[in-house]
Amino acid sequence: MADANTTPYVGRAMKRIEDPRLITGAGTYTDDLRLSGMVHAAILRSPHAHARIKKIDTAAARAIPGVVAVLTGADVNASCGFVPCAASMPDLKAPKHTVLAGDRVYFVGHAVAVAIASDPYVARDAIDAIDVDYDPLPVVANAEDAVKSGSPLTHPDLGTNVAYTHNVSGGGNIDEAFRKADRIVKHRLYHQRLTPMPIEPRGVVASYHAGEGALTLWTSTQIPHLIRTLLPGMIGVPENKMRIVAPEVGGGFGAKLNVYAEEALISHLAMRLHTPVKWIESRRDNASATIHGRDQIGEYEVAVKNDGTILGLKSKTIADLGSYLQLLTPAVPTLTGLVLTGCYKIPAVKMEIVGVYTHKMATDAYRGAGRPEATYLIERLMDVIAQELKIDRLELRLKHFPAPGDFPFPTSCGLVYDSGNYAAALTKAKQLANWDQLLKDRAAARAAGKLSGIGVSTYVEICAMGPSKAMPAGGWEWGCVRMEISAKVTVITGVSPHGQGQETTFAQIVADRIGVPIEDVVVMHGDTAVAHYGRDTYGSRGTAVGGTAIVMCIDKILTKAKILAAHLFETTVDHVVFEKGTFTSPGVTNRVITWPELAGEFYVAKNLPADLEPGLEASSFFEPQNFTFPFGTHIAVVDVDRDTGQVTITKYVAVDDCGPQINPLIVEGQVQGGIAHSIGQVLFEQTIYDEDGQLVTGEFMDYAIPRAHDIPDYILGSTVTPSPVNPLGVKGVGEAGTIGATPAIANAVMDALEPLGITHMNLPLTPEKVWQAIKSKN
Amino acid sequence: MYPANFDYVRPSTVEEAVRLLAKHGDDAKLLAGGHSLIPAMKLRLARPKVVVDIGRIAHLSYIREAGGAIAIGAMTTHADVQASKTLRDKSPLLAETASHIGDVQVRNKGTIGGSLVHADPAADYPASILALDAEIDVVGPRGTRTIKAVDFFVDLLQTAVAADEIVTEIRVPATAKTVAYVKTEQKASGFALAGAAVVIGPNGVRVGITGVAAKAYRAAGVEKALAGQKLTPDLIARASAQASAGVDPLGDIHASPSFRAHLAQVNTRRALEQAVRRS
Ligand SMILES: Cc1cc2nc3c(=O)[nH]c(=O)nc-3n(C[C@H](O)[C@H](O)[C@H](O)COP(=O)(O)OP(=O)(O)OC[C@H]3O[C@@H](n4cnc5c(N)ncnc54)[C@H](O)[C@@H]3O)c2cc1C
Q1: Which of A125, A164, A257, B258 is disulfide-compatible with A538, CB 3.0–4.6 A?
Q2: Domain range holding A393?
Q3: Considering the entire predicted model, what is its pTM?
Q4: ipTM of this model?
Q5: Considering the domain boundaries, does residue A747 fall inside one?
Q6: Which residues 668-697 in chain A show a CB within 8 A of chain B?
């Protein structure tokens, strides 16, 4: 029986069940696996952004003692299929993406050959000994250059650098909106390329049982199930002979929401060499050959009335896809189009997205995928409009919020926002930030000659991905709940958490609803031999979609349990009362049945009603009818050092509404991490390729990620607006921080620089850039 | 990140280490804290055939008063320098500088000897070593010699220490509290984009600058402008403008030459102001 003092678990800021093993180094990551006979692969990667491979000489490498094999594209590509892209769009021009390069390389880091050896040192020696004769070819490393006529072609055989052009219009008549406008506000924004840099790079271990024809693949991934769906088509092992395991995963952020060449290649090698093979990505490989994020350039026009009323929004985006399409590469920029109007009533929109190939690593989903881009631009635009029209920026926002009664709210971009109270979040953030005082402090700082700024962003985003009709491979989720004979509860989920904390939150939900101590609940995930079906973890879907499948299982279990309880009470189900883990039947009997007794009856199965199956287990697929739309307001306060251009965040307030919080501590952690990502993006992170397509930021020596001392003390708050889309009412919070924070911080820096007449700067706002901007106004 | 093959030897005396260096010549590299050498080996930028680990040689890690100076063993970690009461009381600049190096892990492993000999143009110690006018003892097959700080840094990653010599001791003079080190970090690596160390003493002001040029240097123009003058805010500002005079600033994705030069001036001014405040 659950302790009355500890329930309900839901709503409590409990420490995570998964943390002790992670913190004490007792977790098992891919690189911790040691299989008997295991050999090690190292991959030789192209130093050129574009070149023809004239010849590959592997003789010297093969001669090194301990080297098992050295293979090139000619040896393996025919057996490994093509790296899949799940996004289908009309007229998409796509290059064939083999696991190793064919006769050309298309980006620095393109895999050219693989060496397999008895240990990783020898494997590394072997790739150093491979001699490749390259004939360098013209390079295009910039998307705007790539669309100009006469540009070198990324893939000459495609005949163009344009992968697709995607046009969206929605709402009312856009031309009329622009005709009626008093003023057109124009702005150009650049989202720099970002490297996700999970602290654990990718890694793969493959083991093939020739007798059974069965493959087991351990991979540091967010999507073991999607890999099990897609890998069979690449390497020919049927789905039901393939087991994919995601061990502990040390950070994903979207970078591990992909099927990578190495997953097929290493699987193939294990089959070919009849021995387990391990490949662990180095940091440099991770920086050059794991997907990047963002890299969009947009030009925007807003039709406004003099009183601030927004009539319409037009945008033109060039999205740099890199040289290949990874799983969702072409789809990510189109996600930007889905929330282009942010949390505002904007009656007409028109958007053109041009996806462009360049000689760089592919871009794909990176924390927030599309929504940070959209939010940054609409929130920047709101400030620009407010400034040009001399209207209060909060008033401008409030004026365009849908009212709570307007939900479900259909947007011009074609979505229906589930629920919201945007003004409430804004009001709460203002309170927490002590807004009026902030304005006074800023005035005083400015009077003293300091550069001080306040930035606001009010955001909405898309979570709980998603209805199957909107997702390439289905958007449902699967779960299973089993009460064991000992009354312990095993929960199996098809989502694949890697930091989101569902071992804890699902246990909280289950413990409350079934009425057992949380210690008796185990949540399993990330292994397709255990969780047969699932659609994995991305798009803040874990709890809203995966958690709902679990709730459905619990309902089935309780229904079945009541049938047996009624049988034991010699009454009917409607006379059974279930509360906090005990079954009673007031008025019928004084007997009390608890779970250990009932679970025992289910499995010894000697006293079951005739039509009741033994065992107490249920599984469910949940199909959501809509996305969920979390929202909130972030406020950032910054000081800018005039002499050094250094930006310091002096206060940070975030109010996020993700619906009811299963575990506020985990919610806070997710928000904190998300804001940290934004601090990096706004102030210093950027992936730099030079004009020859050389990657300049291939190590932590050159690619800056936020560290503890970059993070201010956050003031976090929340409002709670349940979603009608799922029975838990939850919305999702994995990406909210980074969606809300980027524009808040950027707007704060621009606000600080506004008195100098600086109206625009591209991210990241590095000290040198800020200093140059200040200097240019002196 | 796997280094190329190498042999590993661990001498227990300086003499033995010197013999090993003589024996293996250019194939050998000394290993101190390993926080510059090992990353370079893992990236295969360094491929020594023999690694001579001096980490177990006794009596190379100490901080003690020696006459008017403070003597620091070459194997003293950044953390020990940072925490040293002797330094904090008698010559605080080096302890302050050490606190700016890397993170706790780096400071617990990295050594002052290793940092100086590695001579990274963006390392922190060189600025202070110059401003303190330190002396560095080296032992080699030709015996022991002392190198003055101004002669120590030769070029990018190059010092006056020969390949067969070992740094054993660094000596810095006792100073007043009127010292300071001000640094702007390269955001990714944490090394110095520009670091300025100042020592205001009875016989004038010395200023060392790191991060800005291929090697750390004494800002002679600043020192001259301040010599024998009362250090007013105005004079400090004017003098600091000389902090990058005559040097050829480095440029990369993290800072252009002009920004580095500018930061040298700003940080020199700030370090001087801070040192004056400490009087
Ligand atoms: C993540 C990280 C961050 C860092 N951040 C900073 C920073 O902010 N500022 C900074 O200044 N440094 C920084 N460093 C470098 C750090 O301070 C190193 O510890 C230092 O540069 C080298 O000292 P070491 O003892 O580790 O030397 P090692 O790496 O062992 O050796 C470096 C070189 O010096 C030689 N050598 C070592 N000892 C002697 C000796 N006694 N005599 C002769 N030759 C010798 C070696 O042969 C080698 O060539 C950082 C390093 C890392 C890994």
Answers
A1: A257
A2: 293-466+626-777
A3: 0.96
A4: 0.95
A5: yes
A6: 684, 688, 696-697
